[in-house]
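Recap slide: Nickel import system permease protein NikB, sequence and predicted structure.
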Amino acid sequence: MAGLIIRRFVQMFFLLIGISIIVFFSMHLAPGDPARIIGGPTATDSDIQAIRENLGLNQSLLIQYWNYISGVFQGDLGYSYQSGQSVNEAIVTRFPNTLNLAIASIIVAIVVGVTAGIISALKQNSWLDVFTTTGALAGISIPNFWLGTLLILLFAVNLQWLPAGGLSAPLWTIEGAKQLILPAITLGTGAAALIARMTRSSMLEVVRSDFVRTARAKGVHERVIIMVHCMRNAMIPVITVIGMNFGFLLGGTIIVEQVFAINGVGRLMIDSIADRDFPMVQGAVLLVASLFVVVNLMVDIIYIFIDPRISID
């Protein structure tokens, strides 16, 4: 187990180096000069040059990258070009909102997706199967921004049951829970559809296995067969989908945070890209990439506990 964790962290090190190189040079090669954006329309050429020197933008890209990655190794992601705020501080302030949204969304996805997939598999070719399969297809096809807008119009504007946006109240309060419902449903719908389809196909394969027929022949109760024998064996590919989707949800909150006006890392990334705030974009991308690798490592560890036959190697 320790060897697996060490190998994964070594892989994560080189992966993050590669990601940092791609993001760094992509941002610097993109159109737009952060010095001109900071200086504004009234800035003179000398003002722009002074800003570039102050930010180190007049140096070569290789020297700029070396200075940046040296700071990253020391735990310093730099400072925002726009506000002067520490990137570390900005991410720490906004990350809890993104994490809470991702956790709530994956809970919605697991509850809806696993339940729908099991029902669909056990009632194969019935109207329930057709309904859940069609719902899964719709969930994958519907864009987040359209679904979020529709939910706001229905539940916030017309019915006035839930707030239209924001995530300011503590989650343990009723108001905080209400603020999280609509964005969690919006973000979790697509993941729920994928989990439902994987659960259905995996359950159908397990239900037809010899050990399930043997258990039925021995007179084991159907509920025990489904919950103990089938679920444990069918959950391994489902856990893969859940883990990957949780990683995608952490990085995919950008649109949902914009729609629901949530001050998270995704919204910070969008604003920083528009402002050509290189350090902020790079810091946010590195955070999301690191979390994605850690989530995949956790999935591999869970595999071993669910099915001891799986080798650590």
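The mean pLDDT is 81.
The chain has two domains: 2-73, 89-306.
(End of recap.)
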